[in-house]
Amino acid sequence: MIEDTPQRTFAPLHAALLTVDHQRRWLAGICDALGFGPRCSPYEHLQTAAGATVRRYAGAAADGPAVLLVPAPIKTPDIWDLDPTASVVQRHLEAGFRVYMVEWPDATGTDAPLGLQDYADRMLGACVDAVRQDTGEDRLLLSGHSLGGTLAALFAAGHPELVRGLVVLGAPLHFAPQTGALARVVASYSDTPADAGEGGVIPGSMLNLIGVTASPETFVYQRVTDWLSSLGHPDRLRSHLLVERWTLGESAMPRQLFSDLVTILYRQDGFLTRRVTIGGRAVGPADIRAPVGCVLNRQCEIASPASVLPALDALGTDDRALFWYEDEPGVSLQHVGMMVGASAHRDLWPSVLSWMRERSHA
């Protein structure tokens, strides 16, 4: 805990923010009616026995390498596939990959106390097995954004025999207070959302509030300035509004998962200190044997270089690559700019996909 920091509590906010979640989803429906909803690529579902499902995207080359995309279990996975012009899914398909994506279960639809091991091991493992069975491949490429990248890295550390390569996109791996805005704000609370209120979930709007508290620059000021800079540029403005619509798609988080994230990852810096158990054993960065590609934004306060580079230095592989993404207009939130930005799709993704392709048959 950071000394001399005022201690705050979440409890009074819990019930009110459940109502806010419903209101934001209603606004999302209005945005959809106005033409700002996601235009996702065609897919069908592969079922697993663990609660999560897998999207299998149409249009893939029959013999292309398989990649499993791992979104964060926050909001919807559509940030990977908002629009044909801003679709990481489409860029993978165009590059010849067979594309699959994890679809996490609705946390409000289960009473099970789903925690970090359920997401990073049991459910993600079931998704990996489903793709392996569907493709006949022994090992897969994993690619994850934000918390999805963190979960993918934990799985790669616990099951190196199943991972051919790993791409982490704006995903923190080191969680000490000095590494970023979220780590600092977590340290300033006397409890966690998991200690507040009733029920088995944390409202999505509470996660938004934590983000705004941690970094108003990221979650408030940048969004306003991005909107202003996009006026007069129809393509930028549409991209901005697509992301804003995506932010309204609230998805509650299981109470146990949030408690584990705060307690194990953030307060114990659990990945670097080997306090995370995956595959029945304690794991850290040194257990990742697959090639690792990492996309970072120097200005990002959510997944800062300081929250990633120490883990990269501790990897169990020398085959690693850094790709730098620079802020650009028309993305609303710079944390997701690498997923939707025009310059990201023009300049960044061809390099990342070429790197992945070179390692797809290793």
Automatic annotation (TrEMBL):
Residues 85-177 form the AB hydrolase-1 domain. SUPFAM superfamilies: alpha/beta-Hydrolases (SSF53474). PANTHER family: BLR0908 PROTEIN (PTHR36837:SF4), POLY(3-HYDROXYALKANOATE) POLYMERASE SUBUNIT PHAC (PTHR36837). This is Polyhydroxyalkanoate synthase. The lineage of its organism: Bacteria, Pseudomonadati, Pseudomonadota, Gammaproteobacteria, Chromatiales. Signal peptide: none annotated.
